[in-house]
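FIELD: query
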Amino acid sequence: MQQFRPQLKRTLRRLGRTLLALYLLAIIGGLIADQYVQFRQSDAETQQFFAARQQPIHIGYYNTQQRQMRYIYTEDDASKPVILFIHGAPSSSSYFRDYLSDTNLRKAANLFAVDRPGYGYSGFGEPEPSIAKQAAMIAPILQQLHKQSRPVLLVAASYGTSIAARMAMDYPQLVDGLVLLAPSLAPGEEKTYDVSYVLESPFFSWAQPRMIHSANVEKLSHRQELEAMLPYWKNITVPVTYFQGADDALIYTSNAAFAKQQLTNASELNVHMLPRLGHLIAFKARPIIVPAIVNMLPKAAQYFAQRKQEAVQPQLTAVLADAASANRQ
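FIELD: result
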């Protein structure tokens, strides 16, 4: 038995050195990847992309909840409605750059896209797991836009659809329509990779790419966050258009049934399952999605007008009541 102990010790030492080497390689690889895998464009890169297409683009920043937020937009014409694009994870406002450069969308509306908290240039690598807080951080854009009294349509993809839905729940006075792409709405109805748990362990979390860290933090808290939203789906009354690839393996297609079950108070719900497409329909189905967005604008405008009328009606009733009371006196 004793003759095997030196051999066992040598084997364990080799195994330990191998594991240490693999760990160090993983750490070095993560640190290097962080510099190259960011899925974002700087202000200069953003300007360059649109300048190459001879299209104007504007970049704005604001501060909220101790965080600087960045957004980009095509123009701010008071006579046009607004479309705000909200990206998924991991990503940034650059995810929708082809939509912001689309000539049909530019003619129809002011186009805005925001870097969500933890992505792009809104605190890169500093995730915010709370969907409600993310909605609150993005809300100042809509509050500013609504000062000019015009309809606002939210277009969101993947995880961003959770944020858009929460904004419609918490800020009904700011949202007039939803276009949801590959929506992640139902608690637990999405794929979570085992590696997400490994990367968020103390051994790896500090060395993984910041963009991946933001996505993993959101992913691992997503079910709990969506469960917290369950009582509020009845608050969504805006028109909704839902697109999903029929072969989506990342966000399960059961989300479509969930949407039909929960969005019973939406003024209109249209669900489109796209055959032979997976999760990335924002890219692969853009020729279908862009006309659908344009077609949603009149519906958002109608909802906006109705909402404004309903807001004015109680005030008018109160004025008439006061006048009648004064006449009786």
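FIELD: remark
The mean pLDDT is 88.
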